[in-house]
Major facilitator superfamily (MFS) profile domain-containing protein
Amino acid sequence: YVGESLRWLLAKGKTRRAGQTVARIASFNKIANPVSGDEHSLLSEYKVHCKKHHSSYLALVRTPEMCRRTICLSLVLFGVNFGYFGMTYNNAELAGDRYLNFFLGSLTETIAYGAGGFVVMRFGRKRTLFACLLSGSVCCLLSGVISRSGGWNDNFIVIFSVLGRLAMAACFCACDTFTAELFPTIVRNMGMGVCSLVGRVGSALAPQVSGLRDVAFAQLPPLIFAAAAFVGAMVILLLPETVGQRLPDTVEDVERSGAKPGPQDAHTSQSKLNGKPGVQVQSAQLVNHV
């Protein structure tokens, strides 16, 4: 019962289905159909424009800005998955009652997922991810360097491990949304797939690295997990914030927006690209109107 994304239909040049979708939405909302008269020609112009931009996996690395975003987001998702699952596996090695440690870990994750959405909307994707990755890295590092000599030292290790797990779990509330918003509509699903694949490589490597405590020294796995999360936090700084910004539709939108995308910049650059003022912007307005 859920229709296809109107923005995706426009970006793929499926104007007839887009018109049908708009008509169905307008009918359900009991408003006048905005796709009539000149709007049909607008959709046709947008279709001609989008046909010039063939979507393929090569588009993710063909241009400088797209290559930068693909590499950075892949590193971020690797750090998030690698750090999160690493700290989860490390939960079994904590001192004290393992059932209590499991309960504390589950409780912190519940808090992270419940509050993460509000934090992302209040402070933005970029700042939330940076803060969570950095704090998760610090907590993981501290849990690894503190000597396991019993007493309060073991308690501090448990506290930092639980807090680090909370921070890494909160990353999942922002990383997928942030990744999707940074890729243009024409290759968004491909970009999400590639970055998710790299992230799952981190998930698969986490238990292998956790096993290094048996062949090296106990502090080595937390140090590696902390380093991966720290790299992800630093890479986040190279990416633009997406809250309040119009989503890019084509690779050209991404290249022209650079590191500081904005509605005004997108309007100017797209007008130059089409030779017809505001075709892209009017299409976006049509999507927002419906």
About this structure: Confidence is low (pLDDT under 50) at residues 259-287. The two ends are 17 Å apart (CA to CA). Residues 55 and 187 are 6 Å apart (CA to CA).
